[in-house]
Amino acid sequence: MKRLSMTMMAGMVLLAANAQVKGNAGYPISPVPFTSVKVVENSFWGQRLEASRNVTIPLAFSKCESEGRYKNFERAVHPSDDYNVTKLMPFSFDDTDPYKTIEGASYILQTYPDAKLKAYIDSVLGIIAPAQEPDGYLYTARTMNPKHPHNWAGKERWSKEEDLSHELYNLGHMVEGAVAHYQATGSRKFLDIAIRYADCVVKEVGDKPGQACVVPGHQIAEMALCRLYLVTGNRKYLDEAKFFLDYRGKTSIKQEYSQSHKPVVDQDEAVGHAVRAAYMYAGMADVAALTGDSAYIHAIDNIWDNIVCKKLYITGGIGATASGEAFGPNYYLPNMSAYCETCAAIGNVYVNYRLFLLHGESKYYDVLERSLYNGLISGVSLDGGGFFYPNPLESMGQHQRQPWFGCACCPSNICRFIPSLPGYVYAVKDRNVYVNLFLSNSSTLKVAGKDVALTQATEYPYDGDVRLTINKNSAGQFALKIRVPGWVKNKPVPSDLYSYSDNKRLGYYISVNGTEIGSDNGCITEDGYFTITRKWKKNDVVKIHFDMEPRTVRANNLVEEDRGMVEIERGPLVYCAEWPDNKFDIKNIIINQNPKFDIAEQTLDAFIPEASKQKLTAYKGMRIKTLSTNAQTLAFDKAGRLATTDVKLTLIPYYAWCHRGNGDMKVWLAQDLKATRPAEPATLASTSKVASSMNIPALSSINDRLVPKDGSDRSIPYAHWWPKKASTEWISYDFEKEAKVQSCTVYWFDDQPWGGCSVPKSWKVYYKDNSGNWTPVEGADAYPLAKGAACTVNFEPVTTKALKLEVTLPDNLSAGIFEWSVR
């Protein structure tokens, strides 16, 4: 009770102390807040917001209840030496799940006022607030058992911040959620909690005597503190954010993984953990924009160039490898093993949004839009209840949407991002209004301090027509700056990493009140916007038309994985081939040299689970547009000759894949013979039924006849027994009929040093005898243990109906297999 009273008193003092920030302290370009934009319900984004409101956010709150997130705060109010903290909370950042869910719910509250939801949030804050210590520190991983905190927490505050404690990461998500809640509701209940924790950090973490001189091990506090500065006007939060960046590369831990290998102003390449990196780059862009620091501007511009020119997936995803969930080397963009974490796509949006607010150029929104419509919303199902952690560009069934994750960063991040979308549509600078995204909405903006009301009506991203109406203008003359997307201007991305290969030239036109705008009263300016300056009147109508046709895209030839292949897109949407629409092996197709595409429509009914249809209505009547084209499949026949078969290939938007079960999917499709992968003749192994000692999603990869180029190859699927360790596991083949065998070859999967698998300690081969018993083969010459290479064992021939590998896992790691062939 004493702790709560002190907390309330501190909040009363802060209520008067933190005024709104003055206008000249913000970004060069002013965001139009989410509170000013209302998305139309029966629209592309209206459907996504409804799914967030009715499925994702309730699910996230229910997981906070069932997984003990709220209990952690309750335990922190009544600490005990008996709590096994690491067992009670698997991750030291579990506190952020409620923070992120409150943030998403707050955005939703603004769009869809809901007294019950508001009351529920207040009740959650009633659980969180008492857990805060008198000086503002709030980190349940320590405070529920101060003598024996979480294994990642360290003995003292901040002592393991640069490693695993996530104390400052927790602060960052707390602040982000608190600011959203304050802006949506006007209540300071959460904001004051966040301010007190931020003040504790400012007091205890820094470069002054007696302070802990550490920087965040997982970034986000930087961008969050900049946001808190903008809301409160208190410069100390911006200064703390800049300290966290200034001292990177100067403290105890120096590693690329967390971008602490050198000072941020000396960095010019995106490296390490992609989510940490993106959050840090967003913070750098914030500091650059809010302070005008030229060294920061130069550094973040160089890093952005590196990503967009060498490390960006065509889906807008970032983070090529599961090893460290990290960026790979320049031009390393594998498809099957692409990590492209959902959180990283969200981070990519954050970076590009802030760089737009700094520089005002449309190219940043070109990257943002590509990520938004592809690599980001692919991370959550259309009904809002199924999630991807990684978002690969090719699959053989080893990926499937999950209802939640133990490490719930991606679902809870989606939970907070989708409802925030209204805040990304418009921006204002002086007497310039930027129209950055095209979606049906109504909004009221401030231009030179006066109200301007707009509405947009469009079926974008499936249609290139946008109707923009001026409903009110109290500001007189101003410039309307309409972004002409890069895909219209023949630039998939603002670099040479990808280029259109079909020689098409799309056009566009813009009219005002029925009169097409010519060069005398409107034009594309250097910033990439079509700018129309006039004294706008009520009911003025601007019609925008962008030609929207299917296009083929080639990657820079330095991207080895995509050589000889094309990606197909239409407007901002990347398309993919998926198994339910194509009754043939899509891995073995070759696209025509000059493909022609037909466009069709498909309802969303097949993409929405029956259980969710009772909670959703906006999907009804909505459709996706599919593409189809003539293609061929290639396969070797029984005589070993290459044969082709004409097929009709159907493509769906990438964001919609894996809604109808898991199976084959491809974004990049062969167009050159050198890129084809003809189907191999059937083998004894490929026609066998596979079984394992545990449920393995990618079990079919064991006998798919694909072998790795080397131990680091991630272009083909693999199966593993993770999280099993130090156990004996097995995998077996049941042959279609009895066969004589005398040799096995295994390619072991090993993702060390970052992953959880290594080559096994040992392995043996067994066959099923006439009595149905498993019997060791005799005369085995060797059981090799090489990473990603052919490990062959020869033995005395046996005639059997089944074969089994018995595998002894390493003591502290698991093991996996690329391929197992039998002769």
Structural class: alpha+beta
Radius of gyration: 28 Å
Q: Beta-strand level of the residues, as a percent range? A: 15-25%
Q: Find the count of extended strands (DSSP E, 2+ residues).
A: 31
- Main beta sheet: 11 strands, antiparallel
Number of separate helices: 17
Outline, from the CA principal axes?
globular
Helix content: 25-40%
Distance between the termini: 74 Å
Q: Please, what is the average pLDDT?
A: 94
Which blocks of ≥5 consecutive residues have pLDDT under 50?
A: 1-24
Describe the structure.
With 823 residues, the protein is an alpha+beta fold. It has 17 helices and 31 strands. It is globular and about 90 Å long. The N and C termini lie far apart (74 Å).
Short description:
By secondary structure, the protein is of the alpha+beta class. The protein has 17 helices and 31 strands. Strand 7 and strand 8 form a beta hairpin.
Itemize the secondary structure elements and their pairings.
Elements: H1 2-17, E1 30-31, E2 37-39, H2 44-66, H3 69-77, H4 85-88, H5 96-111, H6 115-128, H7 140-143, H8 167-185, H9 189-204, H10 221-232, H11 235-246, H12 274-291, H13 294-311, H14 342-359, H15 362-376, E3 394-396, H16 409-417, E4 426-429, E5 432-435, E6 441-447, E7 450-458, E8 465-473, E9 477-483, E10 498-500, E11 508-512, E12 515-516, E13 523-524, E14 529-535, E15 541-546, E16 550-555, E17 565-570, E18 573-578, E19 589-591, E20 598-603, H17 610-613, E21 623-636, E22 642-653, E23 664-666, E24 669-670, E25 689-692, E26 719-720, E27 728-749, E28 762-768, E29 774-776, E30 791-808, E31 816-822
